[in-house]
Amino acid sequence: MIRQRFLILTAGILLLLPASSRAGDVFTGFQIDNKSQYFGYLGVRTPLLRTAGGPDLFVQAMAAGLGYNFKTNGQLLDANVQFLVPSLGITQKFGGWTLSALAGPQLRRIEEQRLNASTSVEHQIGAFGQVEALYWHEKGSVHVIGSYADLDNFFWSRLRGKLLAYKANKRCCSTYVGWDVAGMGNADFRAFQTGPLVEVPVGKVFLLAKGGYQYSTPFHSGAYGGFEIYFPF
Questions:
Q1: Which residues of 87-109 are buried (b: 16+ CB within 10 A; e: fewer)?
Q2: pLDDT by residue (tens digit) across 8-51?
Q3: How far is CA 39 from each of CA 11, 30, 185, 227, rounded to the nearest angstrom?
Q4: What burial class does residue 62 get, using C-beta atoms within 10 Å of its C-beta: 0-12 exposed, 13-18 middle, 19+ buried?
Q5: Which of 81, 61, 60 is nearest to 70 (CA)?
Q6: Contacts of 185 by beta carbon, 8 Å cutoff, 6+ apart
Q7: For residues 15 and 32, what is the distance between their CA atoms, to the nearest angstrom?
Q8: E strands of 34-74, at which residues?
Q9: Distances in Å between the alpha carbon of 185 and those of 147, 189, 208, 217?
Q10: Is 84 helix (H, G, I), strand (E, B) or coil?
Q11: What is the DSSP letter of 21?
Q12: pLDDT tens digits along 90-147
């Protein structure tokens, strides 16, 4: 049901875009850790205004779901958050590097278990911002990304590097290997993740698998795994 809502909301935003802008990227993914905490997302980015030599404007819509655990009086409780972020961004190329920044509102629905009480549901609206730096080459890439949400003063950042390990002569299947380092948190929570990844392009679709070690302030050491899918349209 949650995923259906995300699909409907994202499709609705895309239908409002001008027909001339229908060229962009679709990205989705899912991650889960050994405490059954998860994060899944679906996003679409499409150009809005192109200029000779840049900078260019784009619009992005991203819907996501987050499930996590928290402790109250020593008891472990569940919570889940769904959010939608429509945003406007600007991007500029400098040689092999592409720099981007975007901002927009973040619409949240938070559902939390309560001790000896019914589950609470809260709706919130806040601000979201993100910056990115991408270096791409046929033999590898470097991607740096950072974001901030003001509702809970939450920061998230990731450094990702990939190298071409095997080049296929046909459309399938070259293989890239790489590494992720990510950090996130606010005044009440901290987490760190790092681990290897493998990416295989199949035609225009890029399939990525990842996993590794994580540390968080509530649960200390643990493990995570997930996948990502990206394709241009």
A1: bebbbeeeeeebbbebebebbbb
A2: 555 555 555 544 445 799 999 999 999 999 999 999 999 999 88
A3: 20, 6, 15, 11
A4: buried
A5: 81
A6: 154, 155, 191, 217
A7: 31
A8: 38-49, 56-72
A9: 11, 5, 25, 10
A10: strand
A11: G
A12: 999 998 999 999 999 999 999 988 877 778 899 999 999 999 999 999 899 999 999 9
**Per-residue pLDDT for 5 more than 90?**
no
Q: 223 and 16 in contact (C-beta within 8 Å)?
A: no
For CA atoms 120, 38, 156, 202, give the dihedral sign.
negative
Under 8 Å between Cβ of 46 and 22: yes
CB–CB of 88/103 below 8 Å? Answer: yes
pLDDT at 7 > cutoff 60: no
Q: Tell me the one-letter amino acid at 197.
A: L
Residue 2 has pLDDT above 50, yes or no: no
DSSP secondary structure, 63-82, as one string: EEEEEEEEEETTEEEEEEEE
